Amino acid sequence: MSAPAAPRPTLPTPSPATESAAATNTATTTTTATATATATATTTSRRRGLLDWRVRFAILSVIWGFSFLLIKVGTEAFAPFQVALGRVLFGALALLAVLLVRREPLPRGLRTWGHLTVAALLLNTAPFSLFAYAELSIPSSLAGICNATSPLWGMALSLVALSEDRPTRRRFAGLGLGFLGVLTVLGAWNGFSGVDAKGTAFALLASLCYPVGWIYVRRTLAGTPGSPVALTGGQLMVSTLQLALVSALFTSAPASFPLWPTLSVVALGALGTGMALQMQYGLVTEVGPTTAQMVTYFIPVIATTAGVLVLGEQLHWNTPVGAAIVLAGAALTQTRAAARRPA
Length: 343
Fold this sequence. Notes:
Blueprint: H1 32-42, H2 53-74, H3 80-102, H4 110-134, H5 140-147, H6 150-161, H7 169-186, H8 197-220, H9 228-250, H10 259-287, H11 289-292, H12 299-309, H13 318-333
């Protein structure tokens, strides 16, 4: 969500994504990186929610942090593609309900929907499916930590794909520090023993999908008419169609719908992908993208805590230590050089 995903807006423009998405989940995960920044820039007054922004920030962190636990529970009864399908379906329904209440239209134009199709593949269909497959063989806590590497991947990619994103020594140091943290989490000195290589690779690949998608969105959908909710709602609708087709081709219909896995998938979509994104938009508008994207750094902490306390997952010393190193590296990659004052 993740996600976050996600899905979270950490790179290349502030989004949890935090879909760090998140970041990440950050956060999860979507056209919010560009659309939210555009909407924020053109907003003349800041809207305040019914709850203090700190309370909503905490709620958002918990929702996205628990997304990895919900994925784990969902895969106990449903195929990974089906978990991802339920996630985008209920997320789309939640955002469409918001649009209906606001009487906002969906995006228009074949070009826009074409770009949303690619964005849906990169920011929803692929990473959501990969995280679900990863959690068949790795703990939800490890998946949450892998999700926190999205800013690291994004920084590395932006140096190549975004000419205006200039590297600095501090950001290079953050990149190296972050990947050192990944090696610490995986226990590299023990030859990665006890870590499922395939599942971990899937989780890291899912985290890589987010910055690739954000860069694509930044290049193709910047300035597109429509609110962030409308663009993301349309994106989730397209992802629902993509995953419905994939699920029909590669999975069989569920024989039953056990209560807890079913509720987990519904919550993952309606809360972790629908309501959470709506909360993220409100935070960006009220306190700005820099503060809002900090939710990315709380997601792995909450994901690890939830996995240990609720699911009984084992926790070794290198997991929290490595996670802290990853987060420190990710924070360094997000720093920008201070503007020089005229003499």
